Amino acid sequence: xxxxxxxxxxxxxxxxxxxxxxxxxxxxxxxxxxxxxxxxxxxxxxxxxxxxxxxxxxxxxxxxxxxxxxxxxxxxxxxxxxxxxxxxxxxxxxxxxxxxxxxxxxxxxxxxxxxxxxxxxxxxxxxxxxxxxxxxxxxxxxxxxxxxxxxxx
Length: 153
Fold this sequence. Notes:
Layout: H1 26-40, E1 47-49, E2 59-63, E3 68-80, E4 83-89, E5 92-101, E6 104-110, E7 116-122, H2 124-136, E8 145-148
């Protein structure tokens, strides 16, 4: 396991679409572990997408304190409700804002062993899932900001 270099605003890889993972093997599991190690070095980090460490694969790791979630090829298959909340991003450390997201989402993915899973998340987890899955499509949270919040200098 290793800490990977985080990519920041202005890095073109953040606007590229990630490719589907065709085989979930030890190499993918090692990359997921590296992503988790990288996430754990970041203050206030809750999740990370592979493109944020320079890898164009559809991988997401989430650790919001309730256990680690590793997702391969995640896609949102259902949404309901609406919520406004504060949002930021590890790759945009000096930007934050109020965003509008679904209040609940259902995500279909593979786990780190290649098994199909269905994950439901509400509130903070719904926001997090939307944020990270959009990274995989080359999109960032700034597209959803309805008002920016001043960051402390």
